[in-house]
Predict the 3D structure of the following.
Amino acid sequence: MTLFVLKRTGGALLVLLTLSVIVYALFYLAPGDPARLACGERCNPAQIAQVREQLGLNDSAPTQYLHFLQGLLAGRDHSGGAGLVLHCDAPCLGFSYQNDQQVTELILDRLPATLSLALGALVIWLVVGVGTGLLSALRRGGITERALTVLTLAGTGTPVFILGLLLLMTVCAHLQWLPFPTYVPLSEDPEQWAWNLLLPWVTLGFFESAKYARLTRSSTLETLAEDHIRTFRAYGVGERAVVTRHAVRGAVAPVIALSAVDFGTMIGGAVLTESLFGIPGLGKTLIDGVRVVDLPVVVGVVLTIGTAVVLAGAIADLLYAAADRRVTLA
Amino acid sequence: MSSAGPARHLTARRVAAVTVSLVLAGGAAACGPKDGADKAGSGAKPGAAGGAPQKGGTLSVLNSEPQSDFDPARLYTSGGGNVPSLVFRTLTTRNREDGPAGTKVVPDLATDTGKPNADATEWTYTLKDGLKYEDGSPITTADIKYGIERSFAAELSGGAPYLRDWLVGGESYEGPYKDGGKGLDSILVPDAKTIVFKLRKPEGEFPFVATQTQFAPVPRAKDTGVTYEEHPVSSGPYKVVKNDNDGEHLTLERNEHWDEKTDEERKAYPDRIDVRSGLDAAVINQRLTTSSGPDAAAVTTDTNLGPAELARIGDSADKNELAGRVGTGHFGYVNYLAFNPKVAPFDNPKVRQAISYAINRTSVVNAAGGSALAEPATTFLPEREAFGFTPYDHFPAGKTGDPAKAKQLLAEAGFPDGVTVTLTHSTAQNRQTSPEVATAVQQALAAAGITVKLEGLENNAFNEKRWDVKNTPGFFLSRWGADWPSGAPFLAPIFDGRQIVTNGSNYNHAQLNDPAVNAEIDEIAKLTDLAAAGKRWGALDKKIGEQALAVPLFHPVYKRLVGKDVKNVVISDWTGVLDVSQVSVK
């Protein structure tokens, strides 16, 4: 176990370091002068030069990268005007050109919204997706299975933004069962938080559920066909016990592991849903950062997403091992 | 607002917008609005019904772009924008009336629009009595001077450039954080009520510049540098009580120390203003259409209706009700084909003229969203008196182009078998410099024997290329918006040879440096009689137009929905959009 943690940590650090180098390299190849964008369209050359100096853009790319690493390890200072020195404690991801905010703060501000969205979707896809998959496998060949197959096909084939818009138009616009969602932080009003996230959860959850239904179905069918299940049946163990005690456990192991990975990916990958429902999350922040060439934001968010994915991978391995004792960690 | 486009969409939003449009339109072709919407645009005034406006209630603002800069030094929006103008008062402001009357500049914190000296190089303002900040402390001219000075700081960049260019010493001033308390000598405050500006050259339109948020007072003791935007000190009818996620969610409430007797312009009816941003454009329009719950008292200050949405309004069962809630506005803006006459074959005036004759403005207008969203243009200046509009059409292409005349001119230019050129455009889906407009140009020119190759660039790359004087393409789509309703901010940046910027952003695409044009710009700038100045701007536009240095394509029209309970909708020709300071929700 210790070896597993050490190996994983070392590997994760290497991945994140490589990721940051790649983002820096891509940034310097991308069009758009960050100083000009930060300065405004009609800045004169002298002003652009001042802004460039203030943002440290006159340094070479490797120097800027080293400053970034220095900030991560030891923190950095930034001039905020009016005699204000803004200190950013280690691990400092830098200051946003456009938001005048520490990137770490910015990410911490936006993370709860993304986590809220991803958590709700996770619950939906685990309950609906896995439930549907199990039902479909156990009712193989029947009309229920065929109906569920159609539903899952529709789910996987419907893009999130189409489903989201359809839900908005029917549930909010025409039927007026729910108001148009507006993100309310959990800390502000838990009830409103849930009501306002209901449609985004359903949208994202339904889309993912379809995938999980298919995966659970095939995994369950595979497990049900394994020798040990046949042996249990031969010994006269009841079908209900075979399914619930033995088959399901083996079938859901890969589902749980994949869920952890998908949840990690969703930290940065729910851009469409965030954009459609106006959820101020990380995905949207990343897109905005790319658009206005805000390197510290882009690097910070990419590293956060990278960390989430790496962590999710490790958790997936642990969950897989816990669910299926045939798996060992090394 | 310079040439910045009002809408910046994400790809996801574009896809979503197209999708919702298709679903909403129910198969209607995207060919502009039908009767209902058109009627709304041609006379109906939204928010007019339902009794007199009253104080109280909460106004919701549903926006796409967050109000990320809430610092008066950093804002660059015509006349202080919409929401910022509720918090920041300035020396002068825009007249908050519908249509042409709204293009006038009127006093705000000052008692008048400014007293010039004989040659308009010095402007003096006196503050009204009884002006207070949200904490009850008095507003002084020293605070206005400080507010302007801090707009020069690199930390607070982004605001309008005029003061750097106009104030004596402005070009080298680096702001109060670096000047050791010295300040800018060209702004004098002989007493707490008087402020004097010394300019490098005559500027008859200084009162317009004094509407910009850089002229809002900032008390030095309350300045917190780049974090000031989180809670700027209000001098207007509302104060900021909440600013989440860098302007994504703003809550404004009444400033008890604002005295309406000192402010003739802002009506400030609602008790509370709730600004939500980061919303998809299609969702904003759907919410305003449905107008249920709090959305009945909602407006948007940045999201237009698209052609399919307008078509849907025209087709809907309740089209009269919906059309009655569509506000139509005109902002001083022109979309045009730009030439770089230093690049062949555009160095030949006959080639430029041929293209001017060949253009099919009907197909361009359709590509821009249809006649409800774009008006064909043959002049550079918008068709509004305040801009000095003087009609002309030097190369009459009719509605659909004159390919025969274009071919004749091409032959005279030495291209009897036609010519191949490249048109550079942006890939941003803005219906202005975007691929659909470029394609419309390409098709029109093909009829005249001009083969157009399209070069689409990512928007940042496109802007950098068109503004880089060393790298300006020969032929490209461009656009320009006015910082205030006059010919000056239209013609000077585009055609004044002394404004050609060699190592920054250059907007004089044609690189015209004609001493006669430059001299006329200087002469008009001396005029403080704005009506007289307008006539001369119009004449100058007509004169420059003869050189075919640009092909005006269209002036955009803004169409926006308001909620059912919104009253007193005012849309001036200054901003072209609803003025939130006038809206009532009760």
